[in-house]
Amino acid sequence: MEVIRLVITGPVGAGKSTFIRSISEIEVVDTDRKATDDTALLKQQTTIAFDFGRLQFGPDQVLHLYGTPGQDRFDFIWDMLITKAHGLILLVAAHRPYEFRYAYQIMSFMRERADIPMLVGVTHTDSSDAWSVENVAIALGLNDDDREALVVAVDATDPGSVAQALITLLEGSMQPSLI
Q1: Torsion angle, CA of 93/67/84/176, rounded to 10 degrees?
Q2: To the nearest whole percent, how much of the chain has pLDDT over 70?
Q3: Residue 31, pLDDT score
Q4: For residue 102, which of 142, 74, 70, 127 has the smallest C-alpha distance?
Q5: Exposed, middle or buried: residue 19 (CB in 10 Å: 0-12, 13-18, 19+)?
Q6: Model-level pTM?
Q7: What is the bridge-based pairing of β-strands 87-93 and 61-67?
Q8: Which uninterrupted H or E stretch holds 12?
Q9: What is the pLDDT of residues 54-73, one digit of tens each?
Q10: Mind listing the pLDDT tens digit for each residue in 62-119?
Q11: Separation between Cα atoms, residue 14 and residue 55, nearest integer Å
Q12: Backbone phi, then psi, for 86, in 5-degree steps?
């Protein structure tokens, strides 16, 4: 059985845990704990190590989904997870432009450590103050010439939307032998 490892990363509250819970065929293994820092302003619980989900993708292939914590104090975990990853999904909340610079820093951290296909999933696009997917891509320094990253809208609560993001990454960026 071939295992494809995908890392799901992004700022706190971008939808990483929800993304994995929406699609995993197993009960997600998580390390959520009560938020005790500024994270508590966004949500009560936060990931402190990583989330793990699994999805059978074909008769001989399985996706392992690893969700990172959003706080940079856990970057040593980011480093461990990205090392053996086959793909990266960076989730960015469209309605929190003050986090775009931080999302860019996470993206840069990951790209420095692994030359792997990447997809940027723009979440919370239904919010009244959300930026467009195109403008989020521009804010992250991505443009049409950046073929290393695909940028799509993702509803982390919708299994169909999550599945489409995974398919987009796998079909658009992965080597044919992994699809």
Answers
A1: -60
A2: 82
A3: 64
A4: 70
A5: buried
A6: 0.84
A7: unpaired
A8: none
A9: 999 778 989 999 999 877 77
A10: 999 999 987 777 778 888 889 999 999 999 999 999 999 999 999 999 999 999 999 9
A11: 21
A12: -100, -15
Residue type, 119: L
Helix or strand holding residue 8 (H, E): strand 2-9
C-alpha triplet 150, 136, 121: angle, nearest 5°: 45
H or E element that contains 77: helix 75-83
Distance, CA of 119 to CA of 89 (rounded, Å)? 5
Q: Which residue has the tokens 């987009």?
A: 168
DSSP string, 117-178: -EEEEEE-TTSTTPPPHHHHHHHTT--TT-TTEEEEE--TT-HHHHHHHHHHHHHHHS-GGG
Q: Is 164 left (phi over 0), alpha (psi -120 to 50) or beta?
A: alpha
**H or E element, residue 82:** helix 75-83
Q: Give the pair of three-digit tokens for residue 173.
A: 């960026």
Tokens representing residue 23 in the block: 């699609």
